[in-house]
Amino acid sequence: MFKATLVKGAVVLGLFCTLFTASMMPKASTADANCPNGYVGLTFDDGPNPNNTTNLLNALGQAGLRATMFNLGENAQNIPSLVQDQVAAGMWVGNHSYTHPDMTALSSSQMSSEITQTQQAIQSATGTAPMMFRPPYGATNATLKSILSANGLTEVLWDVDSQDWNSATTTAQIVAAAGMLQNGDVILMHDHPLTTLEAIRQIAQDLKSRGLCSGMISPINGRAVAPEDGTTPPPSTGTKVEAESTTGISARRSTELLYMSTMSSPAV
Ligand SMILES: [Zn+2]
Q1: pLDDT tens-place string over residues 9-39
Q2: Measured in angstroms, how far is the CA atom of residue 134 from the centroid of ligand 1?
Q3: Catalytic residue IDs
Q4: Cα 27 from chain centre
Q5: How many CA atoms are closer than 13 Å to the CA of 41, on its beta-carbon side?
Q6: pTM listed for this prediction
Q7: Which of 63, 88, 156, 194 could form a disulfide with 222 if both were Cys (CB 3.0 to 4.6 A apart)?
Q8: Cα–Cα distances in Å, from 126 out to 60, 123, 177?
Q9: Residue 80 Cα, ligand 1 centroid: separation in angstroms?
Q10: Does residue 96 register a pLDDT over 70?
């Protein structure tokens, strides 16, 4: 009897592992002929942002790019509709802490709180909790890694820093940084700089010319891989695209500069 239960348990466990592994593995069948040289991971931190996220999603959609948005839990809690918009636009959503602290300066219970509050805010907005965590400033340690592991989260840093958090960095420099990406690499960018927004179209052109596509980040190893559901984002909704007139861009820019000049949120 006991043995039979054990065997049954092992079968159920085996089935569970198979299903679990299958759902986490990128499917080889989705490899895209337009991406002969592989995939790179575009990431945008610190959103969602009421003055920029919609513009960023439109720019990415028009350029045919997909990206991973490392959201702050506090922002996700305040503007859940923008997190829903990110997912609807074909983006992946990660956890970037609740209040953007240096995690290594926190106690383990404070670390846990930053992580779980953000998981809950994003789960509540989208129905799905993130599988990836990017520590603010890239600051990490063994305690954080163990808490991430206990929460089923993979730590994702970056290979290329676009330096877009530095206001001295130009759009051309952000495009040049993206030009260094190789298959599997991840680039750090942010959901607020205008320079980044303006770099999107050129980044798309550069990747295309090099046979690279924007991919998802594997929750297994934090590297960029082929998306499980195709490389192209879903089409943007009409109303959002229509807002992209020349006048709209100037108006948006003034609003955004005003917003950025009053922003106190940390850079990375
Ligand atoms: Zn950040």
Answers
A1: 444 444 444 444 444 444 444 567 889 999 9
A2: 8
A3: 45, 190
A4: 20
A5: 29
A6: 0.79
A7: 156
A8: 20, 5, 32
A9: 18
A10: yes
